[in-house]
Design a protein that fits this description.
Layout: H1 31-34, H2 42-56, E1 61-62, H3 65-70, E2 86-88, H4 93-106, E3 110-113, E4 130-133, E5 140-144, E6 149-152, H5 158-166, E7 170-171, H6 182-188, H7 195-198, H8 201-204, E8 205-211, E9 217-219, H9 236-240, E10 249-256, E11 258-259, E12 263-270, H10 274-286, E13 293-297, H11 299-309, E14 318-325, H12 327-343, E15 350-352, H13 355-366, H14 368-375, E16 380-383, E17 386-387, H15 393-407, E18 413-416, E19 421-428, H16 433-452, H17 468-490
Parallel strand pairs: 2-4, 3-4
Antiparallel strand pairs: 1-2, 5-6, 6-10, 7-11, 8-9, 8-10, 12-14, 12-15, 13-14, 13-18, 16-19, 17-19, 18-19
Helix pairs in contact: 2-4, 10-12, 10-15, 11-14, 15-16
The structure holds flavin-adenine dinucleotide.
Length: 506
């Protein structure tokens, strides 16, 4: 569901240039201006289009503007106006290889597209090229319930997989809220509310099939391998987890799956201060309670959540928790966690035993981004995504909240606090550039703060275009040099999603 709030403008983008200033609604990013890379020539695209139609069929190739627009942006803040020149829908790994070979031959950029729920402009066509929509490859190709693994094509989404697994008493727990494609989640190293117990995509991907820029097919753990452990050579799988489409198309992912717990119990508990809530979280983890979810929402977020969902939770820093296990285990985990919350001044827990009630609770939590936008009609929001060692979280949140309050910007705060991962939605009116500037400055200060606290500029959304400026500070020059040399080895002409993670060097 894409909101094109700048459709009144007709943009003819210049080769390799981001639009500056002349659109009230654009939120430009400087690094694109520094690159000398150019869009492909019109003649090149015309020939490529004919070749693609010959190989894939007319129905699998489009150059209509509405479809190109739809594929050139995600759910995050618009960073520039560059559209892909073509959109294609491969139906198999072989067709992905053909696309890669044809694009490589003409030196045309390729941009993998999952479901477009990313938040850092990962799918935008920074230098034009071909957007490759993976949604038609939507089969579960290998399912081994007794080994707890499944292999999916890129069009299978998280909810689709869980719908299939449910009948077998199994589930895939990595949950970014949005119904993202599992290969898109692999590409961004997604996580979400269950990561504190079940890990992120990094811990849950066993093998990946990738079509490289030149059309070759790689199996990162070896073809058909699906062992839970391996010490065989370099960890190529984790090179591709988080590669954001910049190293190849992920055409299959083999994932760990889990038994649905006998019992799930959710709870909500309010605190007088953010520190008391985060201290509770730290102490729960230090006590080794195997908590499945522990999420924080601040007073601003709770107020919006109440108004929007007709709920009546206390407007205060609040923890959302969930316990999984056998009935006895869940009861004892919950009792222990309740005592810890009590010790930190938490008001009485409100429990949700039934799945309907639990779903309502988590829906309210997951919908908070949309709630924020709907509570501020006509506005957009910069979503921040930093992660720090958990003991640094109270400092980070307290300082960030004070900064937001001083700025006058609306900014609900929430986080997957069990992992030290923290977000704000910095609301701005797209018709007021000064508001966008303020929100951007706040986001920059928050990111710097996280890096100073030994954290990262992105816990789960990836670098895309939005975080490019921070990567070098986080990784240091040697780290960046190493990443770029891997990129150059696998994609010497920088054709795979150029202009993401770092500037195109070709
Ligand atoms: C309301 C909301 C809440 C969210 N909450 C969370 C959260 O809690 N945790 C979290 O981790 N994320 C969250 N996200 C972000 C988003 O859902 C993730 O980034 C998701 O993993 C992207 O998957 P996608 O299929 O939509 O990928 P897309 O947005 O289509 O693409 C994202 C990136 O991956 C690349 N890519 C996609 N598919 C492939 C492929 N098959 N091969 C190679 N590269 C590919 C793209 O080129 C792009 O760089 C949220 C998003 C929204 C809108």
């Amino acid at each position: 569901m894409h909101c094109w709030f700048f459709t009144s403008q007709v943009f003819k983008s210049l080769p390799g240039k981001a639009l500056v200033g002349n659109s009230r609604n654009f939120h430009c990013i400087k690094p694109l201006l520094q690159s000398t890379r150019h869009r492909p020539l019109v003649e090149t695209i015309t020939t490529l289009r004919q070749n693609l139609i010959k190989s894939l069929g007319r129905d699998s190739v489009s150059d209509t503007e509405a479809i190109r627009k739809q594929h050139s942006r995600d759910e995050g803040v618009e960073r520039h106006n560059h559209l892909a020149d073509l959109v294609v829908w491969p139906k198999s790994t072989e067709e992905c290889s053909i696309i890669a070979s044809l694009c490589s031959e003409k030196k045309v950029p390729m941009i993998p597209f999952g479901t477009g729920t990313g938040l850092e402009s990962g799918v935008c066509a920074a230098y034009g090229g071909v957007s490759v929509d993976m949604s038609k490859m939507d089969q579960i190709v290998n399912f081994n319930p007794e080994d707890f693994d499944v292999t999916v094509q890129p069009g299978v989404t998280r909810k689709g997989l869980n719908h299939f697994l449910k009948d077998h008493g199994l589930w895939f727990p990595v949950d970014p809220g949005a119904d993202a494609s599992l290969c898109g989640m692999t590409a961004t190293s997604a996580s979400g509310t269950n990561a504190v117990r079940y890990g992120t995509m990094r811990e849950n991907v066993l093998n990946v099939e990738v079509v490289l820029a030149d059309g070759r097919v790689l199996h990162t753990a070896g073809e058909n391998r699906r062992s839970k452990k391996s010490s065989a050579g370099f960890n190529l799988t984790n090179l591709f987890v988080g590669s954001e489409g910049s190293l190849g198309f992920i055409t299959k992912a083999t994932l760990k799956i889990y038994g649905i717990p006998e019992m799930m119990l959710s709870a909500v508990c309010a605190f007088t201060t953010i520190k008391a809530a985060v201290d509770t979280c730290v102490q729960i983890l230090q006590s080794n309670i195997p908590i499945a979810r522990i999420e924080l929402m601040d007073d601003v977020a709770m107020d919006m959540c109440n108004n929007h969902n007709k709920l009546d939770y206390k407007v205060a820093p609040t923890l959302f928790l969930e316990f999984h296990g056998s009935e006895d285990s869940v009861k004892s985990q919950a009792k222990f966690a309740g005592e810890i919350a009590d010790y930190n001044g938490g008001s009485e827990f409100r429990w949700a035993y039934e799945s309907e009630e639990r779903n309502r609770l988590w829906k309210a939590r997951h919908d908070i981004y949309w709630t924020t936008l709907q509570s501020n009609p006509g506005c957009r929001a910069i979503i921040t995504d930093v992660c720090v060692p958990i003991t640094r979280l109270p400092d980070l949140i307290t300082q960030t909240k004070a900064d937001i309050q001083e700025s006058g910007i609306i900014g609900p705060c929430l986080g997957h606090v069990g992992d030290g991962n923290f977000h704000t939605f910095l609301v701005f009116n797209p018709n007021k550039p000064e508001e966008f500037k303020k929100a951007e400055t706040l986001a920059a200060r928050m990111t710097k703060r996280a890096l100073d606290l030994n954290g990262t500029c992105t816990g789960e959304h990836g670098i895309g275009i939005g975080k490019m400026n921070y990567l070098e500070k986080e990784m240091g020059p040697v780290g960046i040099e190493m990443m770029k040399s891997i990129k150059k080895t696998l994609d010497p002409h920088w054709l795979m999603n150029p202009g993401k993670i770092f500037l195109s060097e070709y």
